[in-house]
Design goal:
The structure is a single chain. A hairpin with a 4-residue loop joins strand 9 and strand 10. The chain has no helices and 11 strands. Strands 2, 4, 5, 6, 9, 10 and 11 form a 7-stranded mixed beta sheet that branches. Strands 1-3-8-7 form a 4-stranded antiparallel beta sheet, with no helix packed on it. It has about 120 residues and is mainly β.
Length: about 120
């Protein structure tokens, strides 16, 4: 099983980034996909989630209206489009594949929002 995040980096406040989560080794379309983040000294927190068929998504209040989660079941990939980034969005972002019997995590990608 592989879950690999990419797309992080350094961006100025107000900027945008698009994170990708490429997966393999399991039936992607059967898993709920989620993004979490962990800032230094803080616990990991939920950011966004999307159901298997993309009919429904949910967001943390802190990112609602700025972030958009999506998925491409044909390419086993999930995305997190992040707009209007703020310094408080600085964290390591993790992709999570949540299934009935299994739960897979990536290694994370660093997002730093700073001028």
């Amino acid at each position: 099983v592989h879950v690999v995040e990419s797309g992080g980096g350094l961006v100025q406040p107000g900027g945008s980034l698009r994170l990708s989560c490429v997966t393999s080794g399991f039936t992607f379309s059967s898993y709920v996909m989620k993004w979490y983040r962990q800032a230094p000294g803080k616990e990991r927190e939920f950011v966004a989630g999307i159901l298997r068929s993309s009919v429904s998504s949910s967001y943390a209040d802190s990112v609602k209206g700025r972030f958009t989660i999506s998925r491409d079941n044909a390419h086993n990939t999930a995305y997190l489009q992040m707009n209007s980034l703020k310094p408080e969005d600085t964290a390591v972002y993790y992709c999570n594949a949540n299934g009935y019997d299994n739960n897979y995590w990536g290694q994370g990608t660093q997002v730093t929002v700073s001028s």
